[in-house]
Predict the 3D structure of the following.
Amino acid sequence: MFLHRVTYLINILLLIVLCCSSSAMAGETLISYQGRLTWPTGTPVTDGSHSVGFSLHTDFTGGDLVWQETATVATTSGLFVHLLGSITPLLASVITDHDPLYLELSIESQTITPRTRLTSVPRSIVAEGLRASDDSGLVVLQAVVDSGGALYLFDFEGNPGIILHGGLQGDSAVILPPSSVNSSEILDEPGIAGYSNSSQVDLSTGEMADLVDIEITTPADGYIILYGKCYLMLSGTTGTNSARIQIDESQGGVSQYPFYTQAGLSGYVNTGTNYFPIYVTRTYYREAGTYEFRLEGRAMNSPPAVAQSWDHQLTAVFFPSSYGWVSGYATTANGFPSARPVHSDSSDSVLRSDEYYEVDLRDLEIDDQH
């Protein structure tokens, strides 16, 4: 009776759904497989346990056997679910190194034909060996996960690009190639650059001395707002002693009114050190490009007065002059170089003209007649 049942099982109908769910961890892959066992009449087999063999081959018939496992599955109305790789580890390399792959089943040691080809969904879960090729077959991008869980992206020459370290934080979590974030990628978003120098600098009554400098690259025309900060340390005399701090583009030079900040006193109770916090700001409008700015300072009084600066910080923030189309509507294009004609429809209850224009409201800033 059992052998008679096996003969029927050889002719079962398998309704297969691959990759209902899947996972790939530490080089091993799990693929969820669902099937249905029926008698030749279409009636589900009796609920119970059945021995089912699963194997992967490199050809539709014959080929190399690259993986196999046998599991005892429980059927309910003929349906069963099994995770391929849950008994015998299914390494990611089995999927990435063989194309195509065919799944073969055996029920109660009887082989079921034909085999079923693995499609792209099971292959896509294997992050350890993702590869992208062009029409000629050249691999242009490859992703590899190492034993530590780091994801490496390689270019077509095998050079590492982006590296993602799982479980790490800070600068080590994501490593990008040099110059990977540039002005073209910034587009019209505000940019920022900053630098600090905590060294103590002796100021003289000559030209302005550089205290700290920064460089910023702007992708478009716009405004660069600079914020400077430091401490003045004045000592050496009970007489007048002061100093000036300012932001400038050029090295050296003299004080530039009204952009400097001056601090100090006309007299002191002793020759000890007195501290003065300094804050300066300056705004520039510049075309797209790379610019250098500096925080600089000079003493206003000769020895025995001593002027020094310390703990310098300079920050540059870029704001593009345009963030996009700022629109309104007009019934005439006169005075609006940016006007774009737009035709209204009969349902428009606000615009009464058959033709009107969408205009850039910034045109009003250059022509105060409108």
